[in-house]
């Protein structure tokens, strides 16, 4: 078991190793370094592959290391059918993406930096899906946002790339904060901080009065990450990233993080009216919006990006639908989509790389010069369209089986799904046929077949989509059924195969194909009608994001001008107002005002004299006409206080007060006499009265607080502790010295650092003043030195 834990930890660290090694490997081997770098994710893939037999038997794999046991924090992982499948997709497709990027970015000056970013993202995404600890899940969740920001904005010299990266970071980062709040509420409700233990607290969570708030916060995190309406706009804009990023982040990994979270929390938060209303509604809306917007696009990557949005909506809708077949359909479609969409994105990149354009209206006849690429695109399109003999067909059949029903809800979502799948059918074959069929046209670059690094990845994914369907029994045993079992938390056996099941689901599949063919046949007209509709609808969420962000900047500027006007007296006044409120308001609100003290009857004459000296010193400060007199008078008052400390048995405190007061007088006198300040107090009478009242209120607050503290029962626990351990632990007989030097050593060091920094600041002020005077004297001969 210890060996498994160590190996798993090593597998999770392999992407980090790849990130560190990438710049050096690329510098030495160039584009061929991709073959070496691909070893890191391949080894991780092979490690996770070892767990398939155990997971297929219904077991789970847990492990990790304790981090902060007192807070129940650990670096731990939890592998079941769901997390293992995601880990295999991340590392398996990640291996192919590394190879693909080696060919796609060949000779790029920043290829090493790109590989570092892609490996960092891979490690973050792997951490999300295997994390058992809430804290580690959140940390890796936010790391995916940060690393995707780096990848989307990789071509940072283009404004569009910078905007897309910022947009993705703001949307997904904001959702991450919602997720953090939701996880904290889950912790509060269930009392556990591990996903593996949370699975057994479903009834407790669902019955909590905080369930709805927790659900909305979790959905905020999941919907933003998985681009659900109205947060869908960031994903198509992220196509500004290089195609390897699009193929990896936005088809198989990052955008599926929200789907993973919803699948993971289904046993805990599912099976409620809120869950079964919100998820199907937003998922169905996202499905329709994504496919409709995909029809309008002419850019290959944007067409695929919007269908990714629609596919994510379909997955969310299925997760929320609530039936066993819906969960099975979600499990099948999760795998099918990762395979065909990753392949199609890479095909789009190959076309762009070899022809110089992704505009579908400028591409024709590529089949003659790129036959292998066309075969790959056709195979992936068959799976996306839900046609046999590919895995997408099994997923689509199971989807219709799950949705078919006689009630209004089932009919509504069935109609939505048929409409969305028909449009996806049309888009799939628009990508796979339009650029390849017909008479060849001139393109910016002479087209030719891609090198092996480019076509290997999509070819493998397309073939896997075929083999997974042909050997469906094996696929269900090792992948589909364990995924569904993990989502339902009960054993599930999926048995759907390529053999047609005569009935309503097959009829719906046929209807989908017919509608898809019709849309494909009238694709130009559909594109035109969609463009007209969008112009009539007006600005969308993407424009709304710009408006919201600019409004936030303007609002922040106004707030800053109010709170940071650049005037020191306002800052000081606000500080003392807060101090006065903190001191007095709690005492009044909670009824903690001190009792009036009894007048002391045993005050000696010399003690009265010291008190009077302190009072006279304070009065002298108030009536002084120049700063030097006020500083000296303040010193008199401070020395009188030091004498009071001495008379009342605190010689060390008295000595400290003498030293501080002496330094204060000397430094203040030195500074004030060197700075050019107005000799008179320029404040109006009203300002003087306000400042005086504020000073009296602050003094009153400190007085009341100290009186209340002295009237509270004395707790001698610390006294006993210091008396007992000062000698035995710190080897000091003087308890006060031991407290300052040992028990409060760091605090004392901080105080010394503050005094040192203050002294340096004063020295800087004096030198600036002296330098200014010398410069003025050099420029004006009438000024005496």
From TrEMBL:
Pfam families the record matches: MbhD, MbhE, Proton_antipo_M, Proton_antipo_N
Domain NADH-Ubiquinone oxidoreductase (complex I) chain 5 N-terminal positions: 69-115
Coiled-coil parts of chain: none
UniProt topology in membrane: Multi-pass membrane protein
Compartments in which it is found: Cell membrane; Membrane
Domain of life from the UniProt record: Bacteria
GO molecular function terms attached to this record: antiporter activity
GO biological process entries: monoatomic ion transport
Entry GO terms, CC: plasma membrane
Domain spans labelled MrpA C-terminal/MbhE: 687-767
Domain NADH:quinone oxidoreductase/Mrp antiporter transmembrane: start-end pairs: 131-414
Keywords for this protein: Antiport, Cell membrane, Ion transport, Membrane, Transmembrane, Transmembrane helix, Transport
Primary location: membrane
Record keyword Transmembrane present: yes
Membrane-spanning parts: 31-49, 85-105, 112-129, 166-190, 210-235, 277-295, 304-323, 329-351, 372-391, 411-433, 453-474, 502-521, 568-590, 605-624, 631-649, 655-677, 689-707, 748-766
MrpA C-terminal/MbhD domain residues: 613-676
This protein's name: Monovalent cation/H+ antiporter subunit A
